[in-house]
Amino acid sequence: MLHTILTVILVSPLIGSMIAGLFGRQIGRKGAHTVTILGVFISTVLAAYVFKLFVLDGHAPYNASLYTWFQAEGIKFELGYMIDSLSATMMLVVTFVSLMVHIYTIGYMDHDEDYDHDNPYYQRFFSYISLFTFSMLSLVMANNFLQLFFGWEAVGLVSYLLIGFYMKRESAIQANLKAFLVNRVGDFGFILGIAMVFMYFGTMDYQEFFAGLNAQVGKTISFIPGVEWSVITVMVLLLFVGAMGKSAQIPLHVWLPESMEGPTPISALIHAATMVTAGIFMVARLSPAYELSEVALSFILIIGALTAFFMGLLGIIQNDIKRVVAYSTLSQLGYMTAALGASAYAAGMFHVLTHAFFKALLFLAAGSVIVAMHHNQDIRKMGGLKKYMPITYWALLIGSLALIGFPGFAGFYSKDSILLAVHEADVWGSGFAYILLLAGVFITAFYSFRMFFIVFHGEESEYVKNHHIKESPWVITFPLIMLSIPAVVIGIPLVGPILSGSYFADAITVFEQHNVLHEIYMHHFVEGGALGMALHGFMSLPVMLALSGVFIAWYFYIKNPAIPEKIKNACPRGYKVLEAGYGFDKFNEIVFVKGALKLGNFFWQKIDVKLIDTGLVTNTFMSVYNAARAMRTMQTGYIYHYAFVMIFGLLGMLIWVLW
Amino acid sequence: MNFVIPNFAPAIPEIALLILASVVLIGDTIWSKRCQNATYYATQLSLIIVGWLIVDSFTVHQIVTFDGSFVRDTLSDVLKIFTVLIALGIFLFARTSMQEKKYGSGEFYVLGLFAILGMFVMISAYNLITLYLGLEIMSLSLYAIIALHRNSGVAVEAASKYFVLGALATGMLLYGFSMIYGATGEINFDKIAAVIATGQVDHTVLAFGVVFVVIGLIFKMGGAPFHMWVPDVYHGAPTAVTLFLGTIPKIAAFAMVYRLMVEAMPGLLKDWQQLLIIVTVLSLIVGSIVAIAQDNLKRMLAYSGIGHVGFILLGFIAGTFDGFASAMYYVLVYAITGLVGFGMMIVLGKGRQEFDRIDDFKGLNARNPWLALMMLFAMFSMAGVPPFIGFFAKLMVIEEVVKAGFVWLAVVAVITAVISAFYYLRVVKVMYFDVPEDTTPIKAVNRTTQWTASFVAIALLVFGLIPSGFINLCYNAVALTH
Cβ(A327)–Cβ(A257) under 8 Å? Predict the structure, then answer.
């Protein structure tokens, strides 16, 4: 029964996607969105049931295989499910956000300047997002590395297709190519990691992998003679490189801001709520392995903290409404990663959860603004939109409050847990990370409310005055309202179980000496509960920093709009560094693009054309071809020739055997 | 002298097939004038009856009857069921091309049935004489079937080539049989094996016999260097006949090799293994390389078939029962895939015009995307691209041969498989990327053939995605038999 339910959850978005994709022209727009929404709706309802079963009722983890493709020399190629609190939670989040985005898309994609009306782009879009839902589900439900990898690549593929959805725009093509290439770097590490898992554990199955971990402790591997590395450390770091690509951590973050070239619904679904958190999910899923390597944890913590701080800083200077949200996503992903590094996997996943809701909300609200502004994304052209679009206004406000961690909102609990956990952690580098993360809180509040004030409270721009701006249709506002609810309340019931460790007890392993969340639970939660935590929050440093960020944003952009310009002029160099995104793109362009071009030219001209093409391929081909022609001429068509060959063969064999 | 009435029960399918074939033969002379399709339906009905008889009395034990000359076991039942199934498909395709070409269609079905009877006897043969009898029933029917189109020069040429060379090969086979009989004094397979196992037999005579027997067998399978007839015959025969020749006789030939090598001469493993290695390497090379130079699809598939024989023999070379099972799996997969590969020429052929040049497939995707996709399935499966069934067939034989320690053979097999991928993929390339000379949409000759081809082609994919049942069937059949 459960098995069937899981299969239905997994497959129904796929069926919807196939119908919408293959028969899009026949079933028309209405048919396409009906069938895909129906598929995802079924998944959502059943995922809610599974969530209730595994999280609320505490069903024992379910691990079973659905289909074994084949088995060769110990490698099993199979599809299977590993369902526990972790995957059940992710399943619900993925399907719910996906459902909201599906509904939202009806409104958002209705008109499109890039395509003629009779182009089935609309059906194609629905097909893609449903396919994404399927891929993401197969990633989170996997019980083995191979399926994880399949889902991992499949979401990457759909992401690529959707970033380049406006295929006539040069920038979109550049962006999806970039996303693809950067993810290749990450996936290279990831697949090496999987290869190491297979090499040392001889299995692809999670359960067998966890069982074999202890036997590998203390083993070393040596790449350079004389230097020994712990097998587990190398393995988990390689896997983490995959996570860095997918979850856009420094220095593999460069693709995420540009992914905003895709339509807004997918920015919400893929590049904020779900796909980019796959890396976090993967590390949490493999927590028993990560726990064994202090080095890896330190590395993760520092990478996360760096991303959280430096990417947030970039959000301050963005003028594209989606890019502001994109940089905030990057920064929040940094927080989640930092939580993993502090062994607070549960807090990281908690933030994944809350972030999925409030960031999807922010993106969809931003999309609503974009629709109202007739697909204009520059915040300097907005201003004073509050009176035109009240629902979007409140949605964006709620999303922003949740994002900055205003006490009581969902984001407060998760972010505060992360901050406290990093503060408590004794991993190398945790002090440094804590400072970066604290500073990040201030910055987050500043840029979020900068955007908020400029868009809704600032002076009405010429554009707004001259155009007819109106609130979006219900298919857009309904998802906003639906997402606002969890963005506000989801933290309160969850924070207790998350901190005490009971929520993910069956899925996440934390060693006693690393268990910072439990200490937080004892010190901050036990007396006052969720409410006490919120009240206490007002006194705490992070919230004060956040509130001061909001205040300064207000002062800079509403009260005294001349100040930002002054600051910009006062330190032009700093501004330039930010504008260039710390030069990551420049660096990549010079080193990788130009360097690769040179290297490629060398290989092309010298190695490929001269050595391989003419030397190996053409010669091989010509010799095979000549052999073929020569042997063909033996086929003369004369019986006596054939008989001669037979007799000759007979003699040859006789001699061979009787010799 | 006392005469014991033998147990007829195990041979009921064969007896039924003989009776039905005779009925069809006589019936055809009566009803062919009035009712064109009667022979066809009678043939299909006969096959269904025979198939049902086998399924109904499916056995998991070995039953030997007719004084040790006939055996019924799981292996024979499975092979016969597949023969019947594939034959049903062949006749479905062939009917169309027989109708359109208006020559001897009744004879085609009748001869086809007799050839199948010969295959059944070969599959169930348990002594040298029965085996020879079955082989001749099959071969004589096939010679006649190839020459069915009496006015066609190429067809007659093909038939006479096959006949003359076939006679030569049969002569060698018989000579080998007589050597073995001379050395052991037995004609029953189990007794031959027992005598050889005693070790008191002149090994030289036996080895001499083995060489001749192997040559006879390899000729019938179409392995190099006894393959010369294959391309000419496949090419010269009408497409429906090529379809027949290229598929089920391989199954019977597999059974023949199995009975002789594994059941009668397991003690001479070392001798026949060596010979098979030579044949395999040559077949793999000829099959992969010469096919590249072909521009006719029938000839290309003929050479590719030679390569596939190499793969089938790999399973025998492994010398283990798992190896034989993998060879069996391969031969069945090959026969099924061949059904689509050859059948597609009939599906797309129109009237008297043959659709058998590779150029004819140019731009097929633009002209009929569905059939192009089905052809792609067949080509991918033959090339061994996962997840099609052909991938597993290659995987299994290579795995077995590696297990048996012949790594270098596996390397040769893989390299030739890569080379042969070239010409399979060329068909795909021609279909999808070349611009057709004639851009008009092309329709299948009729619905039945299109559905049959599609059904089988999709089965290639489905059994590649769910491979274990079919593989286990072969492994169990072999395991239950020895």
Answer: yes
Report yes or no on A548 lying in a domain: yes
Q: Are residues A435 and A366 in the same domain?
A: yes
Kind plus residue range of the DSSP H or E element containing B70: strand B70-72
Number of structural domains (chain A) is 2
Q: How far apart are CA A452 and CA A403, in angstroms?
A: 12
Query: H/E element holding B65?
Result: strand B63-65
Do both A548 and A611 map to the same domain? no
Q: Which of residues 276-305 of B touch A (CB under 8 A)?
A: 278, 286, 289-294
Residue B45, chain A, CB below 8 Å: the answer is no
Kindly state whether residues A424 and A563 are assigned to the same domain. Answer: yes
DSSP, residue by residue, A468-487: ---PPPHHHHHHHHHHHHHH
Is A87 within a domain? no
- Rounded to the nearest angstrom, the minimum Cα separation between B220 and chain A is 12
With contact defined as beta carbons under 8 Å apart, do A286 and A207 qualify?
no
Instruction: Please provide the DSSP assignment of B18-64 as one string.
Output: HHHHHHHHHHHHHHTTT-TTHHHHHHHHHHHHHHHHHHHT--SS-EE
Cβ B398 vs Cβ B330: under 8 Å: no
Shared-domain flag, residues A372 and A488: yes
For the complex shown, is ipTM > 0.85? Answer: no
Query: Domain end: A571, A593, A609, which one?
Result: A571
Cis ω before B225 (30° cut-off from 0): yes
Buried b (16+ CB within 10 A) or exposed e, B255-288: bbbbbbbbbbbebbeebbbbbbbbbbbbbbbbbb
Please, what sign has the CA dihedral across residues A17, A23, A25, A28? Answer: negative
> Does one domain contain both A466 and A343?
yes
The span from the first CA to the last CA of chain B, in angstroms, equals 34
| Burial class of residue B17 in the structure, from the number of CB atoms within 10 Å of its CB (0-12 exposed, 13-18 middle, 19+ buried) | buried
Phi-psi region of B207 (alpha: psi -120 to 50; beta: other; left: phi over 0): alpha
Q: State the 10-residue block means of pLDDT for chain A, 659 residues long.
A: 88 91 84 90 92 85 80 75 88 90 84 74 88 92 89 89 84 85 87 88 84 81 78 88 87 83 84 85 89 88 90 83 87 90 87 89 87 80 79 88 86 86 84 88 88 82 76 83 86 81 80 78 75 78 84 82 76 76 75 77 78 75 79 79 86 83
Domain that residue A590 falls in: 584-658
Letter for the amino acid at B212? F
- The dihedral through the CA atoms of B380, B386, B387, B389 has a sign that is positive
DSSP letter at B434 equals: S
Which candidate from B215, B228, B399 shows the least CB-CB separation from A642? B228
Same domain, yes or no: A379 and A503: yes
Question: Rounded to 5 degrees, what are φ and ψ at B302?
Answer: -60, -50
Question: Which of A543, A571, A599 marks a domain boundary?
Answer: A571
Q: How far apart are CA A179 and CA A256, in angstroms?
A: 7
Q: Which residue has the tokens 């590993």?
A: A82
The closest CB to that of B226, out of A70, A631, A646, belongs to: A646
**Given CB atoms, is B246 within the 8 Å cutoff of chain A?**
no
A472 lies in some domain: yes
In a domain, A459, yes or no: yes
* Residue of chain B whose alpha carbon sits nearest to that of A649: B225
Same-domain status, A588 and A558: no
Q: Is the peptide bond before A497 cis (omega within 30 degrees of 0)?
A: no
**Contact (CB, 8 A) for A28 and A51:** no
Per-residue CA distances from A132 to A126, A135, A150, A154 (Å): 10, 5, 12, 8
In chain B, what are the domain boundaries? 9-480
SS (H, E, C) A235-300: HHHHHHHHHHHHCCCCCCCCHHHHHHHCCHHHHHHHHHHCHHHHHHHHHHHCHHHHCCCHHHHHHH
- Do A379 and A478 share a domain, yes or no? yes
| Four-point Cα dihedral A405, A406, A408, A410, nearest 10 | -30
